[in-house]
Design a protein that fits this description.
This protein has 21 helices and no strands. Keywords: Cell membrane, Membrane, Transmembrane, Transmembrane helix, Transport.
């Protein structure tokens, strides 16, 4: 009966989102209804919701806020554009896909998917017009890189939220995520479009210089600003992983904390800005405003997750799947992928699944790999109930069939390769 109630709750969530109800409102409403139907007292339901919101946001709200500030500073300063120009100049037309892919990975780490897409899409069109190459041939590597970073790499909201829920080490999650992201991005972003697309397009090539660098920051400033948080977290994680105590270990422990790493990065980014501090502060404020709804959706997802935990649903799923002889990582991916196909939102499906698969951690499933498995599942088969699907369709002026054969196939390939990579990593960690 409890599983039927859960299925009813998920179906209700799907209907509400399909009816264009805000996901935050839909998640809170469904969490309350599901909790009551599962027999929880009303007071316990509301306590669970408060605890779920607090525990989810408490571990990550500053990471999300500082990450959004960082992303907006990078966008407004022109650092993202500068990185694009440098890489395109270095790779040339023949290897232009590699330049776009690497750009997407670099820009995608600090920027959220939608922001990264909007920042890079004009440059994709400019490259296409300059080289005569198909827009999709250039655009799929960009979208793949942004999608991979969105699913696997902190400080994106999904991986950060999951790391908090599963009590995973964010530094290790980032290192494992990078190990997966690069080969997956190459397969789905370089070789996949080469198999399905014509390289050239029948257009008049516009001979203008793509190296018009306007008043962009220097290369060193651009790369430092974009990559500093990642370097700090990785350095801190490696430096603090040694068993022995030494003088500098407390510093590395401090740097491994994503809040500390991002705070240092924001301060350095502000120091490198050419604009006034007032303008830079406006950029920081705009960055936080842009993710306010994302934070609220994550908070509501945390509430739903807590209802599933406190009602014993997670233990029920664990008992029912115990006899299936499936890897917990595979099971987590299957549950999340099913929710993704049903609900559309990668973040919502990942957070909903987390409450169901949390008890599986420890049964041969390291917390960091559970984050990546759920992240991979959350990218599976994006279709008409996902905003990313429509964004890709409209920007590239595609039919539904074309969008399914490009965007949806690319996302599904990333998801499946992510699962394979997680299962392989589990053999070595």
């Amino acid at each position: 009966m409890s599983l039927l109630i859960l299925l009813f709750g998920i179906l209700l969530l799907f209907v509400l989102i399909l009816k264009k109800i805000n996901p935050m409102i839909a998640l809170i409403a469904v969490a309350i209804i599901t909790g009551l139907l599962l027999g929880m007292p009303a007071t316990k339901v509301m306590t669970s919701i408060s605890n779920g919101i607090g525990s989810t946001l408490g571990s990550m709200v500053m990471v999300l806020a500082l990450g959004a500030m960082m992303g907006k500073l990078i966008e407004d300063s022109g650092s993202a554009k500068k990185i694009v120009f440098i890489l395109i100049g270095a790779f040339g037309k023949k290897n232009i896909q590699w330049a776009v892919l690497l750009t997407g990975l670099l820009v995608g780490i600090p920027l959220f998917y939608n922001a990264g897409f909007v920042v890079l899409i004009p440059l994709v069109f400019a490259i296409s017009a300059t080289t005569g190459l198909s827009k999709l041939y250039i655009g799929i590597p960009m979208a793949t890189a942004l999608s991979v970073t969105h699913g696997f790499l902190p400080p994106h909201p999904g991986p950060v939220a999951l790391a908090g829920i599963f009590h995973a080490d964010i530094g290790k999650t980032l290192i494992y995520g990078l190990t997966l992201s690069i080969p997956i991005a190459v397969i789905a972003g370089i070789y996949f479009p080469r198999l399905i697309l014509k390289r050239d397009q029948s257009v008049t090539v516009q001979h203008f210089s793509i190296n018009e660098e306007e008043n962009l920051p220097s290369a060193s400033k651009s790369f430092i600003t974009a990559l500093l948080p990642v370097f700090l977290i990785i350095a801190g994680t490696i430096g603090s992983s040694f068993k022995i105590d030494y003088i500098g270990k407390p510093l590395f422990i401090f740097l491994a904390d994503p809040t500390a790493a991002l705070l240092i990065s924001v301060i350095i980014a502000l120091a490198l800005q050419k604009t006034s501090i007032t303008k830079a502060m406006e950029s920081c404020a705009e960055g936080v405003k842009s993710i306010a709804m994302i934070i609220l959706i994550i908070a509501a997802g945390g509430a739903f997750k807590q209802i599933l935990i406190d009602s014993g649903m997670g233990e029920t799923v664990k008992q029912l799947t115990g006899g299936l002889n499936l890897s917990p990582l595979l099971l987590a991916w299957l549950i999340t992928a099913s929710l993704r196909v049903t609900l559309g939102s990668a973040t919502v499906s990942a957070l909903t699944a987390s409450g169901m698969v949390l008890p599986l951690i420890g049964a041969g499933a390291p917390a960091e790999l559970m984050v990546l498995s759920v992240g991979a599942g959350s990218l599976m088969f994006s279709h008409v109930n996902d905003t990313g699907f429509w964004m890709f369709k409209e920007y590239f002026n595609l039919s539904l069939k074309e969008t399914f054969s490009t965007w949806t196939m690319m996302e599904s390939l990333v998801s499946v390769l992510g699962l394979v990579g997680v299962l392989l990593l589990n053999q070595f960690v």
